[in-house]
Specification:
- The complex is a heterodimer.
- By secondary structure, chain A is an alpha+beta fold.
- Chain A has two domains: about 130 residues, Roll (Thiol Ester Dehydrase, Chain A), CATH 3.10.129.10; about 120 residues, Thiol Ester Dehydrase, Chain A.
- Chain A is built from three helices and 13 strands, in the order ββαβββββαββαββββ.
- Chain A is globular.
- Chain B has a single domain, classed as Orthogonal Bundle (Non-ribosomal Peptide Synthetase Peptidyl Carrier Protein, Chain A).
- In chain B, strand 1 and strand 2 form a beta hairpin.
- Chain B is globular and about 35 Å long.
- Classes of the chains: A alpha+beta, B mainly alpha.
- Chains A and B meet through strand 7 and strand 10 of A and helix 2 of B.
C-alpha cells in the first residue's frame, strides 16, 4: 500500500483555514497503537501549520522543521484519542513561515508550540505539488480515513559515555530504510526533526535519572527551548548525541542537548525539566 | 546606535556565542559562523523584540535600489553597477570585503551586526511614517 500520506502524516481533517493566518484541524490517534509520543503531537501541530503555509504559496514551496522557540510538553496522549490541532501563522512567504500552535484532547492542553520558524524549500524537490494540492482539498472537505499510521520504527541509541548526573553521550543511527521515509518525503527522504526531539528526550531522561531528585516527585520534561535544526538528517546517518546539565535547583533543571555528525553540530536545544509525576 | 545592545544580545542568543564577540563590524557568517537558519532566527527575533516587520528577501531588493534585477545582477553575479550600489547600501562594510565577482547568494556574507541595526532602524522609521500617515 502506498505509504504517502500514511506513514508519517498526522492531520486527517482540516476544519477551518484562513489563508496565511490560521488553521484548525484534528488527528485521531489509531486505537491499536501502543503509544503516541508527545514528539508526534508536536509533529501534528507542525504539519497543520505546514498545510496553511503551503496553501498560502500555492504549493510552490513547503516548510521544513527549523526553529522552535518553545515546546511546552504538558500531557502525553493515549491511543484512540483525538487531537484538536490549532496553528496561528505569524508570517508566511516563499522563504519562511513563522507560527505558534497547540494540541488539545477533550479541552485539555497537551502541547504548546511558540515562536516556530520553518524555512520554505522548493516543493518539487520533496514531493509532487499536485498531490499535495489534492490532499489539502481532501483534508478540507471529507477528510482522510483515520487510523492509517502504522507505528514508528525502533529508535534506540547506544550510550557511549558521560558523567552520571552531569552529562551523557550516545550514538544514534538514523534508520536506513523505514516506511516513514516514503511520506517524509517521497522525493527526498529526510529524518524528521520531531523524531530527533523524541530521541533527545529519551537521552535527557537518562541524564535526569542521575541528577539529585527534586524536593517532590521526580524529574519530568517540561519545555524544550530554542530548538534549532541546521541540516537535513538523511537515512542511515550516524548521529552523536550529548545531553549536559547546565544548572538545577530543588524544582527545576536545565539541560543542553546537542546533535553532531562528522560535519559538525546539526541540532541544538535546551530542555527544562520540572518536578512532577509524569508528562 | 541605540538599538545595538539589544541587537547584539539577540544575535548572541541566536548563534549562540559570547555577546562580547558580537561587535558592530563583525560579519555574521565569516566572524561569527552564522548559517542560513541563523539569519531566519535572527530576523524573527528582531521582529518580535522591536515590533517591526522585516520582509524576507527585502534586503536584496532594498540593496538593488532603483536598479532593475537585470541591471543589478546577471546569472547570479552582481554587475559592476550593482556592486557600486551594494557598496553604497552596505556602507558599514569595509570596501576591502567587496571582492569582485560577488555572487548574489554570497551577499549575506557581507552582513555585519551594524547591517541588522540599520535594517531595524529603517523598519522602525517606515513603521512610524506609516503610522503618522494614517488618517485620524
Amino acid at each position: 500500500m502506498d505509504a504517502h500520506f500514511r506513514a508519517f502524516s498526522f492531520v486527517d481533517r482540516i476544519t477551518s483555514v484562513q489563508e496565511g493566518k490560521r488553521i484548525r484541524g484534528r488527528y485521531a490517534i489509531p486505537a491499536e497503537l501502543r503509544d503516541f509520543p508527545l514528539a508526534l503531537v508536536g509533529e501534528a501541530v507542525g504539519q497543520l501549520a505546514a498545510w496553511a503555509a503551503m496553501a498560502a504559496v500555492d504549493f510552490g514551496q513547503r516548510p521544513l522543521a527549523g526553529l522552535a522557540g518553545s515546546i511546552e510538553l504538558l500531557r502525553e496522549p493515549r491511543a484512540g484519542q483525538v487531537l484538536e490541532l490549532a496553528a496561528d501563522l505569524e508570517s508566511v512567504d516563499a522563504e519562511s513561515v513563522g507560527y505558534s500552535g497547540t494540541a488539545h484532547v477533550d479541552g485539555a492542553l497537551m502541547l504548546r508550540l511558540e515562536n516556530c520558524v520553518g524555512p520554505m524549500m522548493p516543493m518539487a524537490d520533496f514531493d509532487d505539488p499536485q498531490k499535495l494540492r489534492s490532499r489539502f482539498e481532501k483534508l478540507c472537505r471529507a477528510g482522510a480515513d483515520p487510523g492509517s499510521f502504522p507505528s514508528l520504527p525502533s529508535l534506540t541509541f547506544e550510550r557511549t559515555g558521560g558523567d552520571a548526573g552531569r552529562s551523557v553521550s550516545a550514538s544514534f543511527q538514523v534508520p536506513s530504510a523505514a516506511p516513514l521515509f516514503a511520506d517524509h518525503f517521497p522525493r527526498r527522504p529526510v529524518f524528521p526533526g520531531s523524531l530527533l526531539m523524541h530521541v533527545n528526550l529519551q537521552l535527557g531522561a537518562v541524564l535526569a535519572s542521575g541528577i539529585p531528585p527534586p524536593a517532590r516527585g521526580r524529574w519530568v520534561p517540561g519545555t524544550i527551548q530554542d530548538m534549532k535544526l541546521r541540516s537535513f538528517m538523511l537515512p542511515g546517518t550516524t548521529l552523536q548525541l550529548e545531553a549536559r546539565l547546565k544548572q538545577h535547583s530543588h524544582d527545576s533543571a536545565s539541560l543542553a542537548l546537542e546533535t553532531r555528525t562528522t560535519q559538525g553540530v546539526i541540532a541544538t536545544a535546551g530542555l527544562l525539566l520540572k518536578a512532577g509525576d509524569g508528562v | 546606535m541605540a538599538v545595538y545592545p539589544k541587537i547584539a544580545e539577540i544575535i548572541a542568543a541566536a548563534l549562540p556565542c559570547e555577546i562580547e564577540r558580537v561587535k558592530l563590524e563583525a560579519s555574521l557568517i565569516d566572524d561569527l559562523g552564522a548559517q542560513s537558519i541563523d539569519f531566519l532566527d535572527i530576523v524573527f527575533r528582531l521582529e518580535r523584540a522591536f515590533k517591526v516587520k522585516i520582509p524576507r528577501g527585502k534586503l536584496i531588493e532594498d540593496a538593488r535600489g532603483s536598479l532593475s534585477q537585470a541591471e543589478f545582477e546577471q546569472a547570479g553575479v552582481v554587475s559592476p553597477a550593482g556592486l557600486e550600489r551594494l557598496k553604497e547600501f552596505l556602507s558599514e562594510v569595509p570596501q576591502a570585503r567587496f571582492v569582485s565577482p560577488v555572487k548574489v547568494a554570497d551577499i549575506p556574507r557581507l552582513f555585519t551586526t551594524e547591517t541588522f541595526c540599520k535594517i531595524v532602524i529603517r523598519q522602525q522609521r517606515a513603521a512610524a511614517t506609516a503610522a503618522g500617515a494614517k488618517p485620524a
